[in-house]
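> call design_seq(struct)
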């Protein structure tokens, strides 16, 4: 019994150490970039030896991948988006996506990591973009294409439409998470406004009724 308890405690301690390393590395990568952060600094921030960092993560790349695996969790969101898409609930589809990024207490670390990885031009930027942004572009573009084919949306380029929508969300985050601009509306009001602006630009205009046309003569 005592052996089992010791083993369990050891496993918990190991998980906690990995978690502390991931937290420390994420903060440093977000502040100094991948190239500007050393394993020695990560070890110091986590309160462990550099050798222990290498024990759990042989390379900085492995540590970066672990950060993405922990912080980029979109499976539940995509399931909800798919459910709304099946019902052709346009408003909910785009509200879910925008609301996932524009919400109280959102972690700014991921956006900083994305910017640093792109500016430094290392291979991890592709990993980050694929897990953090491309998946949203693909889902939005596919949905827009479906709604165009069904006659609900105007005939626009689906990928450009997806970029326009995600672009609004990312620009909002840049203003408020990176530049520190204060929000003048609640998160819910902001999301609703962005979604309405986007959908009003996509939806097909209904043909004017004949009687209305006659009254205008």
């Amino acid at each position: 019994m005592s052996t089992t308890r010791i083993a369990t405690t050891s496993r918990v301690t190991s998980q906690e150490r990995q978690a502390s390393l991931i937290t420390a590395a994420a903060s440093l990568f977000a502040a100094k970039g991948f190239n500007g952060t050393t394993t020695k600094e990560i070890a110091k921030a986590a309160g462990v030896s550099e050798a222990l960092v290498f024990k759990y993560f042989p390379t900085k790349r492995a540590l970066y991948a672990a950060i993405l695996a922990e912080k980029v969790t979109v499976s539940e969101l995509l399931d909800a988006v798919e459910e709304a898409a099946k019902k052709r609930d346009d408003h909910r589809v785009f509200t879910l996506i925008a609301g996932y990024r524009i919400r109280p207490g959102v972690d700014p670390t991921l956006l900083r990591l994305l910017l640093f990885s792109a500016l430094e031009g290392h291979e991890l930027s592709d990993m980050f973009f694929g897990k953090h942004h491309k998946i949203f572009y693909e889902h939005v573009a596919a949905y827009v294409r479906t709604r165009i084919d069904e006659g609900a949306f105007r005939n626009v380029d689906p990928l450009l439409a997806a970029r326009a929508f995600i672009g609004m969300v990312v620009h909002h985050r840049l203003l408020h998470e990176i530049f520190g601009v204060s929000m003048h509306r609640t998160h819910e009001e902001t999301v609703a406004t962005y979604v309405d602006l986007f959908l009003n630009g996509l939806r097909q205009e209904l043909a004017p009724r004949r009687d209305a046309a006659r009254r205008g003569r």
